[in-house]
Automatic annotation (TrEMBL):
Residues 36-130 form the Ig-like domain. GO terms for biological process: cell surface receptor signaling pathway; cellular response to lipopolysaccharide; immune response; negative regulation of T cell proliferation; positive regulation of T cell proliferation; T cell costimulation. Keywords: Cell membrane, Disulfide bond, Glycoprotein, Immunoglobulin domain, Membrane, Receptor, Signal, Transmembrane, Transmembrane helix. This is T-lymphocyte activation antigen CD80-like. SMART domains: IG (SM00409). The chain crosses the membrane at residues 245-265. It is found in: Cell membrane. Coiled coil: none annotated. Its main location: membrane. One of its GO terms (cellular component) is external side of plasma membrane. The keyword ATP-binding does not apply.
């Protein structure tokens, strides 16, 4: 008797649950139960490259029609009895159910359907193929700018990369042996900008390094699967003491040489003037000498 009442109560509960359940949920449950789903195939490609949609078919049967669609948009195919819409210009059908797609871009990614109907009209296959399109980011460029006296100041490091997909954040990589007990660096800003036409992303990041902890080595930036060259920051400024001494010594030598040259030039000039004065004869002296010479001849 108790078992019968429990069965009755269970039936009533199920009936009440059915009345409270929305009709769309019941229909969805029936749809999932009656209509088996086909496993979705995965296809990957890169921007600018090519992919091939190889739709599975029953080779023992003759095909009446074949459609390759992106969602509900016709891409390529054929029908034995009637012409079809114009195919995508970057696609080409090969064999019965094979379609090549060229010059991929980001807009081509999505879910495609292979629709095949055979001449016996008894089988209508619908295979899903999901196309994922990616683009490799360019090798990150690194720009380092430091304070003049960055030994006690800081350095700004900017890493930038272009033309990648999907969206990825620029990362700053440090060696595993780095001392993490101090806040040596801090990210100031990070951005990912998408181009409206190509739908590709540019990724960049700027970080500030505290140079009071000394030189930091073996650093790199990465985005996606691309990594920059290794770089260092906060390198000690060059020792300017010896440099100043050398510069001062050179200047002193140059000044000394100039003084010596000027002294020599002055002495040479005075010597020439003295020689000119000794070798020159004034007109009065010539007249006196001539008179004395004439007197001697007369006597």
């Amino acid at each position: 008797m108790m078992a019968s009442s429990q069965i009755l109560q269970c039936f009533l509960n199920q009936l009440l649950l059915l009345r409270l359940t929305p009709i769309w949920a019941v229909i969805g449950l029936l749809f999932v139960t009656v209509w088996p789903t086909v496993a979705q195939l995965q296809l990957k490609g890169e921007v600018g490259q090519n992919v091939t949609f190889d739709c599975p078919r029953d080779k023992s049967k003759e095909i009446k029609l074949f459609y390759l669609q992106k969602d509900t948009v016709y891409v390529n195919g054929y029908h034995v009895n009637k012409p079809l819409s114009e195919s995508w210009e970057n696609t080409e059908r090969d064999d019965w159910t094979t379609v090549h797609m060229y010059r991929l871009n980001i807009s081509h990614q999505g879910t495609y359907f292979c629709i095949i109907q055979y001449t016996d009209n008894q089988l209508d296959d619908k295979q899903q193929i999901h196309l994922s399109v990616t683009a490799n980011y360019s090798k990150p460029t690194v720009t380092v700018s430091c304070d003049k006296n960055h030994e006690y100041g800081g350095c700004l490091v900017r890493c930038a990369s272009q033309g990648g997909y999907p969206r990825n954040k620029m990362m700053l990589n440090r060696p595993a042996t780095w001392n993490t007990s101090h806040q040596i660096w801090k990210v100031l800003n990070s951005s990912e900008h998408q181009d409206k036409d190509s739908m590709l992303f540019d990724s960049s990041s700027t970080a500030c390094f505290n140079c009071s902890y000394g030189k930091q080595e073996m650093l790199s930036c990465s985005v996606g699967e691309v990594t920059s060259d290794m770089f260092s920051v906060c390198e000690p400024p060059p020792d300017t003491g010896n440099h100043d001494v050398i510069v001062k010594a050179i200047c002193a030598i140059v000044v000394f040489i100039i003084v010596v040259v000027l002294v020599l030039l002055c002495r040479c000039r005075k010597g020439r003037q003295a020689g000119d004065a000794a070798g020159s004869v004034r007109p009065e002296e010539v007249m006196v000498l001539n008179d004395m010479k004439g007197g001697k001849e007369a006597s």
